[in-house]
Design a protein that fits this description.
2% strand, 9 helices, three-stranded antiparallel beta sheet
């Protein structure tokens, strides 16, 4: 009997020990999960920062390539102009060669004609021998006429020699000019060929640079999507951290305080230049995938804060107030402003909100739903 009691006591002790141990394990596991959630959030934020740094670096490289592309395009235009000028010069040179060739052919014909005339005269005198020459001299009317005819015959022969020499010289000059023009054209053709090669080289550089820019643009787009995913992950991790409940309580307290404090009328607000752009880009970051009512609600929250005495009285002051809008801290708003990513619906929502239109009353906060939070639900957000 005592042995049985001891066994039962031992068994109860074992069961108690198991339950006690289970409680300890459960407490440690919860703490470990909390620590792990914080570590994962820190890791995700570090990866997000690295991704944004990569985006900045790739954007810088892309901007540098775009600057190079502008220079290359200018070079390509200059090379094309030079090529056009060379083609014009080659055309002019070809015309000069054509004109020179025509002049050379004309000179050759003249030389041929003059030579034929000389041959006929020489043939005539050879066939008639000295008889014709003597007959012409004896037919002279006096000694003076005799001398004149004799001088005429000499001058005619001298003229033939002179003209033949002149035409031959002219022909040689024209041939020399033609050779010079042909040499100049050859030089222009070689320069034209070199310029065409340079044009092809610069065009290739332009194409490669443009392809690199497109590649960087794709990489930046991919990195931005990764950044968006990290931001979403950070938000999910934030929802698992108990500190968010404290933040929520503070927000609810601020919301109640804002409701009880004084409010300006929208007519009393003077918007600064750039407020519309800033508000539209924030709406894009916070509610780009939401229906139009969700976009207007986000814009109304910002304007409600401007109207409330609890918050800054400007759009810039409200949006950049410390730790109020996550896209400001994550860098998404800066990217959206730099690239002008807001849609027409975002601008329309900003315009309506800046006119005082609101579909969330005096709400000054919004977030994704979490257990225990009540308010106006629009799309994927609750406004309170």
């Amino acid at each position: 009997m005592k042995k049985a009691c001891r066994q039962i006591a031992a068994l109860m002790a074992l069961i108690f020990a198991v339950y006690a141990t289970s409680d300890i394990v459960f407490a440690l596991t919860t703490q470990e999960k909390l620590n792990q959630a914080k570590q994962e959030k820190a890791q995700t934020e570090a990866e997000l920062k690295q991704t944004k740094d990569n985006i900045t670096g790739m954007q810088g490289a892309k901007d540098s390539l775009q600057g190079q592309l502008v220079i290359l395009n200018d070079n390509l235009e200059e090379v094309s102009r030079n090529l056009s000028n060379l083609e014009e010069q080659i055309g002019q040179k070809e015309q000069e060669i054509e004109d020179t060739q025509a002049a050379l052919e004309e000179a050759e014909e003249t030389v041929e004609w003059q030579y034929e005339c000389m041959k006929k005269r020489m043939q005539f005198m050879y066939e008639r021998s000295d008889t014709a020459y003597l007959e012409m001299l004896f037919a002279a009317n006096g000694f003076g006429d005799f001398l004149n005819k004799s001088l005429y015959m000499e001058q005619l022969a001298e003229y033939d020699k002179k003209m033949l020499k002149q035409y031959q010289d002219t022909q040689a000059e024209i041939e020399e000019e033609k050779e010079k023009l042909l040499a100049q054209k050859q030089e222009l053709d070689e320069l034209h060929e070199q310029t065409e090669a340079e044009q092809g080289k610069v065009a290739g550089l332009v194409k490669n640079t443009a392809n690199n820019i497109a590649s960087y643009a794709d990489q930046i787009s991919t990195a931005q999507n990764v950044a968006l995913a990290y931001e979403a992950k950070v938000k999910e991790q934030e929802a698992n951290i108990a500190a968010l409940q404290k933040q929520l309580a503070e927000e609810q307290a601020m919301s109640r305080l804002a409701a009880q404090s004084s409010w300006r009328d929208i007519s009393e607000v003077t918007f600064a230049e750039g407020d519309r752009e800033l508000l539209a880009q924030l709406i894009y970051c916070e509610a780009g995938g939401e229906p139009y009512a969700g976009k207007l609600a986000v814009g109304a929250v910002v304007i409600n804060r401007v109207l409330s005495s609890v918050y800054p009285n400007t759009v810039v002051g409200v949006i950049y107030q410390n730790k109020q809008f996550s896209p400001v801290g994550s860098g998404r708003l800066a990217l959206a402003l730099a690239e002008g990513r807001a849609t027409q619906a975002c601008y329309q929502a900003a315009d309506e909100a800046m006119k005082g239109v609101t579909n969330v009353g005096n709400c000054v906060y919004f977030r994704t739903p979490i257990p225990g939070l009540t308010g106006i639900s629009i799309g994927g957000h609750i406004f309170y």
